[in-house]
Amino acid sequence: xxxxxxxxxxxxxxxxxxxxxxxxxxxxxxxxxxxxxxxxxxxxxxxxxxxxxxxxxxxxxxxxxxxxxxxxxxxxxxxxxxxxxxxxxxxxxxxxxxxxxxxxxxxxxxxxxxxxxxxxxxxxxxxxxxxxxxxxxxxxxxxxxxxxxxxxxxxxxxxxxxxxxxxxxxxxxxxxxxxxxxxxxxxxxxxxxxxxxxxxxxxxxxxxxxxxxxxxxxxxxxxxxxxxxxxxxxxxxxxxxxxxxxxxxxxxxxxxxxxxxxxxxxxxxxxxxxxxxxxxxxxxxxxxxxxxxxxxxxxxxxxxxxxxxxxxxxxxxxxxxxxxxxxxxxxxxxxxxxxxxxxxxxxxxxxxxxxxxxxxxxxxxxxxxxxxxxxxxxxxxxxxxxxxxxxxxxxxxxxxxxxxxxxxxxxxxxxxxxxxxxxxxxxx
Length: 428
Fold this sequence. Notes:
CATH topology of the largest domain: TIM Barrel
Shape: globular
Structural class: alpha/beta
């Protein structure tokens, strides 16, 4: 299929700002024309008028637990440990594959409407998550979340993780990639991490984990092991493969140097970390140290929603508060974290994150008609500081429209919501 988005304002790369009038041509899965000033020629299967609209690179949610839409509003206003141990982990022991499938579809519908085109997810019953992703059309890095605090859990957990990673690697026309996900340094021992590294190297896939989320976690780990978790993981050779490290709130200068030296990604989850009072990740310092930084929502059970516009805005605002500098994390950088930074984290850095000829056509079309986007002095700043998911009128992944003119094309949203309301009764 050949699609023309005619006369649209475009953010090709965040650092370039906005180009006011561009003809964007999508052919099959890629951008084949980005014609400044308009005038793209040829025959088109679909023409989308771009006047009064802005095309931005697809947003990448680099850390979430998709099916935790089930636990939205289920356990709010608690510290992380109580939230996990008293509410979430007991509820997750009752989870079924059916629930994970339907609540994954619910999360996918929410993310499409919020301009997310790719995401990284770790959870349970991941075959069901992958099936939902395949149907919905998004791009994803998926992994089974390994929790093995006792020796009897190690082998079965690793078997589940390996089986899933092998079965879904490269599926859905290449839109699905897989990772290995020991939950954290405090829920998985050295044996799990060593075997994970071995298998990740064999399959040539990354590791996705949680790291340094709370001060108590880091202090307790230090007391038990005599060193912080980042250094412990480095000594286990974990960073010899690509790593997505979610949260990274309580990082020393040495921790940051380790991540930078090994090309690891720190995934900043500002809403979740604020809601659980974990702290504010040192994003400006991570970037200065040379660490790739991406943004994530975490699960809706802690964040409330899966809104990457909110994460961009909070990343910029909290970055300024953290440093005391209003110049920290300016709008172009916040958008880059939410797009290109995430693309790099998921392993698609050479194909996603910008709107250029030859790149994969993952993009988001925003209407500029709303009052909160008027008068439009700086559209890029408006995307970060003012835009809402309600402004999203088009979403494309690999050139395929998943949403047009506000209509979801791959998910029966009303059916999904009705099913999820029914299934959630079990947890009341």
